[in-house]
Amino acid sequence: MLKGAVIVMGVTSCGKTSVGEGLAAALNCPFIEGDKLHPDSNITKMSAGTPLTDSDRWPWLEIIGKAMKAECDKGHGVVASCSALKKVYRQKLAEAVEQPITFIHLYGSRDLLEARMAERKGHFMPTSLLDSQLATIEVPGPGETALHLDVILPVDELVRRSKAYLTSNKD
Prior knowledge:
alpha/beta; globular
């Protein structure tokens, strides 16, 4: 079983939920779906095609971080999905969890992401917000523990590589 906190991150439609659920199952730990923790006001705003601001995101990030901390406090690890677009957001999450977080950064071409968005049914995020997220994302870099994976790969391969990365970096 995993010890510690992992966030599967990236822009909309990169597969955070699919990879996160698969990774949590592979590591025998809980999965937290970040989108389900958005306040109603955020969902309404995004559904209308309006990008979230930092002030919209702070309470949501705090909720995700506290949910992750509650799982880690039980003595086991946790995998969560969250866009975590900016470094400051990732720092906020780590502060709430009260420990370092390993990030699995999923990325893909704009065309692939847009095609995936067009295929989704019943999701609040319109395709019009993809460019906003692509413009906002700050790819994890120095000082952050992250694995970068291209979502052109099948989900099972993304899960396999993520699990291998996480288990090879543990004592």
